Amino acid sequence: MIPYGSLIVYVTPKGRRHVCRLEEGQAWHSRDGWLPAERIAELDFGSVALTSLGVPVLVQEATLEDRLLHVKRLTQVIYPKDIAYICLRLGAGPGRTILEAGCGSGALTLGLSWFCGPTGKVVSHEAREEFLRLARRNLDWAGLGANVELHHRDIAEGFAQSGADALFLDVRTPWDYLVQASAALRPGATLGFLLPTTDQVGELLLGLEQGPFSIPEVCELFIRRWKSVPGRLRPEDRMTAHTGFLVFCRLQAGAEILAGFRSLGTRERKQEAARLNRS
Amino acid sequence: MIPYGSLIVYVTPKGRRHVCRLEEGQAWHSRDGWLPAERIAELDFGSVALTSLGVPVLVQEATLEDRLLHVKRLTQVIYPKDIAYICLRLGAGPGRTILEAGCGSGALTLGLSWFCGPTGKVVSHEAREEFLRLARRNLDWAGLGANVELHHRDIAEGFAQSGADALFLDVRTPWDYLVQASAALRPGATLGFLLPTTDQVGELLLGLEQGPFSIPEVCELFIRRWKSVPGRLRPEDRMTAHTGFLVFCRLQAGAEILAGFRSLGTRERKQEAARLNRS
Amino acid sequence: MIPYGSLIVYVTPKGRRHVCRLEEGQAWHSRDGWLPAERIAELDFGSVALTSLGVPVLVQEATLEDRLLHVKRLTQVIYPKDIAYICLRLGAGPGRTILEAGCGSGALTLGLSWFCGPTGKVVSHEAREEFLRLARRNLDWAGLGANVELHHRDIAEGFAQSGADALFLDVRTPWDYLVQASAALRPGATLGFLLPTTDQVGELLLGLEQGPFSIPEVCELFIRRWKSVPGRLRPEDRMTAHTGFLVFCRLQAGAEILAGFRSLGTRERKQEAARLNRS
Amino acid sequence: MIPYGSLIVYVTPKGRRHVCRLEEGQAWHSRDGWLPAERIAELDFGSVALTSLGVPVLVQEATLEDRLLHVKRLTQVIYPKDIAYICLRLGAGPGRTILEAGCGSGALTLGLSWFCGPTGKVVSHEAREEFLRLARRNLDWAGLGANVELHHRDIAEGFAQSGADALFLDVRTPWDYLVQASAALRPGATLGFLLPTTDQVGELLLGLEQGPFSIPEVCELFIRRWKSVPGRLRPEDRMTAHTGFLVFCRLQAGAEILAGFRSLGTRERKQEAARLNRS
Question: Do A249 and A191 meet the contact criterion of CB atoms below 8 Å apart?
């Protein structure tokens, strides 16, 4: 029995995937025919149903990845491979508070919302109203907006939350908002960035050098898919070669202190250590 | 103020990272000197402390990635890039129940535990006792074992849980356990596999063809790190080129039904659809 | 002054590249207008000419790569990145004799012909007549056939040359022709293979283990292109992810002798060595 | 019979490769024992010989790749995968004249020399004397210097040859030498560059925009090796992730003409075309 309100993937014999919410009294329509919601509600996930045109269609529950891949988009969205790694590096999880700007079409927002759950919180910022509306619509569609605050706000004026556990910036000039970012985070928090060009990465690295940040890590992630034909196993002919450079670093509280210590000689530092550690 | 019980990363000036729990009345010792817990407890995360030898050390909270990278290991552990993507593809998250076998050193177990949180559950199986002990130790060390069941069990006899949301097999011959896996999952659940060789992938694909599974996806993930030097931006000289092939598919309930439909003509299928959809 | 008979690339303002031979009394025609050969013959390579429609077109000499990329094809051709590495590994160069089967559309044949030059020789074999004709046509078009023998021949019956310096097999079941290959090569010669699937690689490795071959090397080559926009440097969005697995090994003369030596004890081998080296 | 003067690879049972020239009256010495030249000269390539210590050693002819991998080096040398692709893109081959600066340890010089052969010529420039000596020594050792001119020269003062077919610059600031490069090449010639950082690539692209060059191509090449174990086929664990960015473009003769045409209207260009093409 599939409950009403479920987000469903209908898989046709040709492998097309249609994502649609199951609403009582309604139906799913496609070029392969239609299916009444009442018929679907009687089935289990993973079952096969026959459309009005006699086409057998597989009825699956939409996974997190189905949701990420089917969001409506106005721009390039972040890919699942990157969303997964960003969420791990930011430590998204139950009870955590994560900041984001801009939200764009909301694909990363959706991933953060999933992992943080009802005890966590995602605070997202977006300056352009049409993106804000789109992100809200995508979150509602995915059934994932309950723990998300969407702010129509230019982050030059600061973030809508302070003391957050982590922050992700997917904006064109992230180096312009490092002061605001630092003010919004608790000490030790992780910052993440996504940038398409190496020129932007270079400029961000220069910016991070000025602030109380740990040495940044820069990386790229690739996914290479294989054709799953036993006996003729081989990689697919083409792959996505670039989605963006990821940069991660952490907010440090003691940057000035560290600088101060470095100006001391070893003997002075030992004396200072003895004084501090005994206190 | 850093609470006792926190898992801490001490970062030395040379960039070495030591992960250690803060225990009241104890101290952290290293070749760079020692630090009393009482001194650390007064600081904030991200602060700098001077060791007994006058070495300035950065005091950070251990992130999820720090934990994954510092588990004690008897074998190759799964990498963060793969753990992140596996957790996303399995839909790990608050309230979800995920099965795993074998747990090995427990790195994936730790990631699943993090994302599923107190309302979710990870049910892990391991046949070799020394790995079970190691996984338990790593989970305790990481402060993440509360939602994990570790079973000393050969999965040939079946899994310790049924109706689970997803399952991950990191065993040498996963094709031997597909019947047991199907019995332990709810319809539509996602199955994931990690395999080092293409020969194993080929054999698994043959096995999956026999069962009620959707067409499997095979992929590899790569992470390429860059040297974060502004003005001289360049990739690192070496990278990890292989950690394993990932295979994902979903459990279908209606495999026999689908086969039955395929044997019917289009007209018969339309009649059958009309009968079913009207009922 | 561009000599008649030159192979020319006409580059249009939109970046389209047309490869065409300059023939006295003829003209080059395109949707951007036409150009009489007499006009082109007066120019230097790298010049700009105006077509009959007033479109400025860049007149370049066709490079080796232009030729490789513009061969007429009935099947997938080998890519320049692979051709380059194969030619280096086989030691193609002036004065060398290289065997090939099958020649397919002749792209690799063309590369081998280029590097071996008038003092070298390429001996190519192809069982299907339409490919043989196509390869001949592509070699003539590229002006590179003079040092190439094209044999209409099933290599199961042996190669048309013996004592060759190297050999390349681009056939579906190369393991079926290892005896013939060994007979056609001088001792120490390099053998190369191109195979699309890992299953074929596995079968070839098994075949090579039976024969007098050195331990094979297996590799893949990738080329990742970047968008050449200063200030916004970034990789292209998509890339070719798979063209084939390359396998290389060398023909050994002393395989049985080696096996014989291994059965002896160290002392006996020393005595034998003393006897042989003094003789 | 192996002729004296041959460059030989001795492969030990543990897979170590020693490259050494066979000189009459001398011997090859290693920790696995020694072998007199007279004994080797009696064998064929690919044979097995027993050293004085009774160790069976495989006697192979040094391939082009063996030579490239065993040059003595003072700095990072260019890898075979890159040398192969550079030689193809530059159109190195019998009868061609190729310019190079700096020659470094001479690995690329060696590759160019091989492919250009006795009818071609490699003109290499190097400002530092110790590199010049090293390159000469490596060319002699590899038996490949006959067609190579090595110039001790700062290319700021121009190249030692004009009208060359292609040019390769492996220097830190190639954008400083574009005028000299243009003067040394025939129209339509290909220019290639190797640069370690994206910042250098960006600066080179800016430089090329100023000159009579076609739109440059930027790429990276990767080689991924596999473990050649049948039944357990898998990629190697680690790979080289970065050797350098390759940039290629072509010298155009008509850059100013092209700019002139662009300032005309379509009708004026058609009239001009009619005038030119009829003349």
Answer: yes
